[in-house]
Amino acid sequence: MEKEATRTLDALTGRRRRLPMVPFDNSHRFESPVRMVTLLDVFEGRQQVAVYQFMDSPFPRPPCVGETHP
Fold first, then answer.
1. Taking the mean position of all CA atoms in its chain, how far away is CA 27?
2. CB of 39 within 8 A of CB of 50?
3. Range list of H helices, the chain
4. Are strands 29-31 and 36-38 parallel, antiparallel or unpaired?
């Protein structure tokens, strides 16, 4: 069972790595205690940030594990 889980995670990782690179849209604003900030502001100048986008499936099919869990 553990090997099957490892193979499944490896396959998911491979699919994620093959996703296309897309330009980053920094137009969304977040409310902070001081002012409205961008996502880039939230990470305070760090040079690299990993951002995951979770894809929800249309109902009635429940989302698959790979679509809802990091």
1. 17
2. no
3. 2-17, 39-42, 65-68
4. antiparallel
